[in-house]
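Researcher: Hi, I'm a grad student and pretty new to this. My advisor asked me to get structures for two proteins we've been looking at. I'm not sure of the right format, so I'll just paste the first sequence and hope you can take it from there.
Model: That works fine. Here's the first sequence with its structure tokens right after it:
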Amino acid sequence: MPESWQSLKDGSWLLEQEACRLSLWWPRFYGYYLVKLGPLAGAFDTSAARMQRQWHMGATGQLHFAGSELPLQGRSVDVLVLCHNLEYSKDPHQLMREAERVLVEGGHLVLTGFNPLSLMHLTAFWKRSPPFDGHFYHPLRVKDWLALLGFEILADDRLLFGPLSSKTPHWLEALGENYAPFFGGVYMLVARKRAIPMTVTPALSRQRKRVVNPLAGTVTGRVARLEAPKAPRE
């Protein structure tokens, strides 16, 4: 995992591009806790999010984290931010399961990654230098993982349609956004954890009512009233 954006080729420019797109989402989030996972996510300015507390979790963050298991209680986080964590995780499936575990019902997951089916990747994957030294996962595959974990995809945004360079012409970006959006070099997913309904089904409701025998009290009462001994007629 890169220790900073500066360790990536044109990292400062890449951070600016991703932060600009995500800045539209931060004001929409509210709750108690927002956690940014890893050194890259920690560089995002999330002050516009209406959260009571915000934490940066990583090797050098406010909360220490290393590996795929998060040292957080289940259902304790309202917004979790993963920035290119899947590419460098030894167990990305476990990391996704941990994200689902720590999020509250209705909580949001913000996830960014590099798209292997893009011009940016095809022109530089053979160099094996950051950020191309990780394992890239196609966004459709990541969305399948999220669906299996019970997430609802709210947004799927793509950007950077040319090589990883701050000198990429604007016309190439505009061409990609308008005619080939699925080939963006970076994808951004915003997903919401579905809440599990806790309603009682009518069948179970009827079964619970039948636990009490409806004849237990009424029959005894009728016997006492209707079958009382009568005086014989003379």
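Researcher: Oh nice, that was easy. Here's the second one.
Model: And its structure:
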Amino acid sequence: MRNLLISYAKAVCLTGLLLLAGCSDKDKDKAKQQPVPFINQDRFGRYDSIGNLGGKPVSIPDGVVLHWVRYVGDPGDFDASRKARKYKRPPITYQLPIESFGFVYRLTDGAVLSRKEQTDIDYMHDNKTLIRIGQPFPWAHTIIYNIYSPKQPKTFNQWFNNILESSKESWDFEYSKQPNKVFGLTYYQANNGIDPSTNQPWTDNIAGKDLYIYRDANNNIKTLILCDIVGEIKHCHHDFIVNNFPIDVSITYNRVYLKLWQQSEKNIAAILDSWVVTNDGKLIKEQAGKV
């Protein structure tokens, strides 16, 4: 009986060792199939966020990213559903499509805020001093939306039409195209500046925003800007398409800087282009936001 038990124990141990060896081989095979990509770092040792943006592999400096990078398929931030809890993101590679991410951009010189760098110090200084004394804040909150599906629009034509329709249906006024352009933008004014409910100049910041658009050579709207007309601090919400990716960029800034809209679009396109890398993650250009 004792010999039988010893033989049984040996068999169990041998089976366990074989299973372990089998699992190890499978893990090795899986690792070979999904190699860990090379990831760039900054001088503080922080790893870049990687993925695919507009069909291009990108490496985004960690110090630049505002909050985090979202990938296509990620559940919403407040999604507590069972499906969201069970969701397992595919391995992050330079081919995994990014859905969106944000950063902070300085309108006056085209710089990108990067944590622990001089721009971080500049931002904190401006935040403490300029806002307190009512001076224009030169920083813009910027969100990048990847256009990763052929079904996603690459123009703002429909959005523009929706704005015109909703103003008539919901607010009982029409946008009127103004005879003169503003900073090269076609300007539409809400009911020629008059609130139809009071027959006085607009006093709310919801319905009567100024509307600016820019059309390309094919008459497609590639830039759409809505600006506050009342309030202590007036903001502009500026959306534009970067064609060579393609992606939708949304930036919010003090209306004082509307005059810089075209330069801002060029600067942000250049920033994004600096983060494009080879398929295996090698840098092509000096990355914006890294020292």
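Researcher: Is there anything I should tell my advisor about the second?
Model: You could mention this: The CA atoms of residues 113 and 119 lie 5 Å apart.
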